[in-house]
Amino acid sequence: MTHPFRCGFVAIVGRPNVGKSTLANALIGSKISIVSRKAQTTRHRINGVLTREHEQFVFVDTPGFQTRHGGTMNRMMNRVVTQALADVDVIVHVVEAGKWSSGDAQLLPLLPKSGQKTILVVNKIDALKSKNEMFSYVNKIMAQHPYSAVVPVSALRGVQLDNLLAEITERLPEGEPMFEADTLTDRPMRFIVAELIREKIFRLVGDELPYGCTVVIEEWEENDAGVRVAACIVVERDTHRPILLGAGGAHMKRMATEARQDMVKLLDKTVHLEVYIKVRKGWSDRESTLRELGYE
Ligand SMILES: Nc1nc2c(ncn2[C@@H]2O[C@H](COP(=O)(O)OP(=O)(O)OP(=O)(O)O)[C@@H](O)[C@H]2O)c(=O)[nH]1
């Protein structure tokens, strides 16, 4: 009997910090989306693709669902979430084992009512102290939304991910693959590079630099010998500049060096990377500026 090929879009949604990026990376098997301890680090929609013998999963890693702040940025981000959910074949709603908060509850009205294409994923089961709590925790959530499946996982340890992929597969429509088998993302390389730099910033100074920063690739020149990239870090306040620079520019040097090393691996070319800082006051709250900087 021939096996029909299945292919479709999968959205990973959930409140900030539940492990969406970690899960996407663990499933796709390559580090394209960025991971950080800070909430709200994934602002862009990223499509990662996993191709297996009989199926292709096109992952949409949506931004953290905003609950803490008001403003234009949040409305735009919530629109991105709603749009992603309308467009996809399968929704993976990620929650954290034993921890249910108003942030999780606020996502429920955005999920399609039928629950047919929605899977509840209970992540971080490795961090659970008592496994007994799991049953009542899951029951409480299931009472609020008609999910069609529940899969407990540990994205970090790679536990139960095959089970999750099997549940997703059941919900994928039959169809030809949309991407070449070796495609990891359909985002342009310059977007991925901007994400790489942003990841370094969050790793190094994320605690001191809350949300008010984005990375724009201003120049990209590529030939057979290598690639020359000029990247601009846009911050909200003058006070953010010295935080990014670090003593004697040490932070910037380290971020640029690490990002350059990642780029060499990714592009398999010689990389010349220049990184600048620009201050643009109040950028995160002006819709036109957000568009200019590449947000949807
Ligand atoms: N113990 C444990 N920690 C995890 C697991 N999955 C993710 N984490 C941690 O949880 C934190 C947040 O993970 P992310 O993948 O950045 O979370 P996110 O939901 O994408 O966050 P936002 O981008 O803010 O929306 C990181 O410190 C991860 O290492 C897991 O299975 N177990």
Automatic annotation (TrEMBL):
**GO biological process per UniProt:** ribosomal small subunit assembly
- PROSITE patterns given in the database record: G_ERA
List residues binding GTP: 14-21, 61-65, 123-126
Q: Where in the cell is it found?
A: Cytoplasm; Cell membrane
Query: Which region ranges are annotated with the description G3?
Result: 61-64
Protein keywords? Cell inner membrane, Cell membrane, Cytoplasm, GTP-binding, Membrane, Nucleotide-binding, Ribosome biogenesis, RNA-binding, rRNA-binding
Stretch list, region G5: 153-155
Predominant cellular place of this UniProt entry's protein: cytoplasm
Q: Which GO terms describe its cellular component?
A: cytosol; plasma membrane
Residues of the region (G4) are: 123-126
Q: Locate the transmembrane regions by residue number.
A: none
Which HAMAP family did the record assign? GTPase_Era
For this entry, the protein name equals GTPase Era
